[in-house]
Amino acid sequence: MRRFRIEPGGHLQGEVQVPGDKSVSHRAVMFAALASGTTRVTGFLESADCLATLAAFAAMGVAHRREGNALVIDGVGLHGLQAPDAPLDLGNAGTSMRLLSGLMAGQAFDSVLTGDASLSRRPMARVIEPLTRMGADIRGDAAGRAPLHIRGGRPLRGITYRPPVASAQIKSCVLLAGLYADGETRIEEPGVSRDHTERMLAAFGVPLRRGDRRVSLQPVERLRAADVAVPADLSSAAFFMVAASIAADSELWLPAVGINPTRRGVIDILLAMGADIVLDNEREQAGEPVADIRVRSAPLKGIAIGGDQVELAIDEFPAIFIAAACAEGTTRLTGAAELRVKESDRIAVMADGLATLGVDVTVAEDGLTIVGRPQAPSFGGGHVASHADHRIAMAFAIAALRADAAITIDDCDYVDTSFPGFVSVAAAAGLAIRSERAAS
Predict the structure, then answer these.
(1) Which of 152, 164, 339, 353 is the most core-located residue (most Cβ within 10 A)?
(2) What span, in angstroms and rounded, lies between the C-alpha atoms of 329 and 325?
(3) Angle at 262 (CA atoms; ends 397, 46), nearest 5 degrees
(4) What tens digit of pLDDT does each residue of 178-192 get?
């Protein structure tokens, strides 16, 4: 088991190249596998989560290879996947499990989706329910958790589905099943969710109808191969955006970061808090908007966060909480109960860690209230538990920039699920961080 130790203080300078977008990387593998022809994926995130997705498709007969900086995938077509010899082990990849459940429901063969202990605690009833309505035979344990057993050869029918929460994973699961269903599949969401699936389906030749919080498709005969240039991951960039904002005399340049409007909430929230963030050279890359992001130190102020802002920044709140702790005034987050069913209960775990470091934090069922300390130090030193959550670990790592003593973070192995090389990248930018083997 690895832990991080970060010495207090410091400032950040220079260019930081964060790895490829995890959400886009997962989808690039899936759609390339289902396409007719060969797809070249550049910028693919070589993380544990995305490699688990790649391995799952290799187990179903999809060949891939590296050519220079590209991942080359030979698609087998919508109906070309082969029955795997064993359960598909997706590690910690919740996105992969939920999206694959929809895809596997349309196959002619039986399959089992499994994962590690953390993934096996996450709720899967939210995808089991709509897939069952479509005619799938999919079952988890008594609580609706993995492993998921999916019986193949079941005819699927298109449905209109109104999920109880706005969720890109639920939406994408149902749309993938809809590729194999009889009739139209339609999703009507209560709020805004990420649209990476819709953008990539369109890039691979699938016609969609889109409206305000609605999307629908009809089954298709084929997907056509399309090269994918994966943007840098905004969720990974968020830690450095916050770090450069809170550390004195800091300026960072983050090239080619994805700024998809359905997930750029962290940028808008930090701007509302007073951050000095500039988006330069805005352009489109494989259907996804990207920009070069410049961030400079700036005094932050507390704000109220709620409504559609929550879903647009759902993965970035651990970093946002660190910004809030350094801001003048109070930051209040509401409507974020979804944070309780991520890799950890991010409301409880972040609150515990913030309190350990001396931050005034109050917990609600659907959010947090954080009273900031704008004058450094904003944090004391201490020992924080990440609960095997990669984003928790990285969030408390950047907190050390405004701490008065070292911060040690336990159980950091899972950082590799989204940001392999985080320690070396952060250290090169100026964070006094090292990774060490924890005593057993």
Answers:
(1) 353
(2) 9
(3) 50
(4) 999 999 999 999 999
- Please, are residues 229 and 28 in contact by the beta-carbon 8 Å criterion? no
Candidates 21, 315, 411, 416; catalytic one: 315
DSSP letter at 366 equals T
CB 289 within 8 A of CB 261: yes
pLDDT at residue 417 is higher than 90? no
Per-residue tokens: 109: 């063969």
Could you confirm whether 315 is annotated as catalytic?
A: yes
Task: State the pLDDT at residue 440.
Answer: 60
Does 171 appear as a known binding residue?
Answer: no
All structural domains of the chain, each given as residue ranges with its CATH number in brackets, are 2-20+231-437 (3.65.10.10), 22-229 (3.65.10.10)
The 10s digit of each residue's pLDDT in 209-224 is: 999 899 999 999 999 9
185: tokens are 């599949």
Residue 5, annotated ligand binder?
no
Instruction: Please tell me the distance from the alpha carbon of residue 226 to that of residue 42, in angstroms, as a whole number.
Output: 12
User: How do residues 341-381 score in pLDDT, each as one tens digit?
Assistant: 898 999 999 999 999 999 999 999 999 999 999 999 999 99
DSSP label of 387: T
Q: What is the pLDDT of residue 246?
A: 98
- The answer to whether the annotation marks 342 as part of a ligand binding site is yes
How much is the pLDDT for 286? 77
Instruction: Indicate whether 384 pLDDT > 80.
Output: yes
Q: What number of helices (H) and strands (E) belong to the chain?
A: 13, 28
Strand partners, 64: 73
| Annotated binding residue 23 | yes
167 labelled as ligand-binding?
Answer: yes
Pairing of strands 160-161, 185-188: parallel
Residue 1 tokens, joined: 């088991």
DSSP H helices, 273-345, are: 308-312, 317-325
Query: pLDDT tens, 61-91?
Result: 999 999 999 999 999 999 999 999 999 999 9
- Known binding residue 94? Answer is yes
**Two structure tokens written together for 295:** 């961030």
Neighbours of 243 (CB within 10 A): 32
Parallel, antiparallel, or unpaired for β 214-217 and 13-15? Answer: unpaired
Which two structure tokens, joined as six digits, stand for 384? 């924080």
Cβ partners under 8 Å of residue 117, min gap 6: none
H/E run at residue 270: helix 265-272
